[in-house]
Task: structure prediction
Amino acid sequence: DAGVIQSPRHEVTEMGQEVTLRCKPISGHNSLFWYRQTMMRGLELLIYFNNNVPIDDSGMPEDRFSAKMPNASFSTLKIQPSEPRDSAVYFCASTVTATNEKLFFGSGTQLSVL
Amino acid sequence: SQQGEEDPQALSIQEGENATMNCSYKTSINNLQWYRQNSGRGLVHLILIRSNEREKHSGRLRVTLDTSKKSSSLLITASRAADTASYFCATPMDTGRRALTFGSGTRLQVQP
Result:
């Protein structure tokens, strides 16, 4: 199994631009999570899906952030417009059930907004 | 706010020594998990301990859980340079949401 795959690994963009982060969960996993990691705030849950349905998006910072999961094998996190304070590492994780046990993380996307 | 907080924030030891990291959390939980993160990589699940367990072992890892004190510890015995990483405890979110909240982590440096 290839594990959770995220792309791109690194993204550098200018303030105001749209950014799209992508995630392919492990096949057979039906829960998918987006986390953001910064030095100041640590790991923060942004949103999670169960069976492709968004269950909890209370961690999404503001309307500039949106996430979709059109099918079981693909999810996107979009920031529009991006701001320098969005600079962080964004992780996608998946698990086989929604029972909060043993998350499998991707390698993350390092986002820098200039 | 974060549910779990690790202590110490950073730890530096020599190869062969034991490393102990502690985690405190705030609300009732049904399990507590420990994850490891190497620099520039995603988190990797190490071990899960359930609320009705007091101690669990996995290779060189030993985890304890004290639900009365809302605390857990992770012991790595006979540490190796390859154990250098950040270690995080994770607990279910306090509002019943089926997701994990992570502590601030302990940065472990094992000197060869």
In short: The longest strand of chain A covers residues 42-50. Chain A touches chain B at residues 4, 31, 33, 35, 42-43, 45, 48, 50, 55-56, 91, 93, 98-108 (CB under 8 Å).
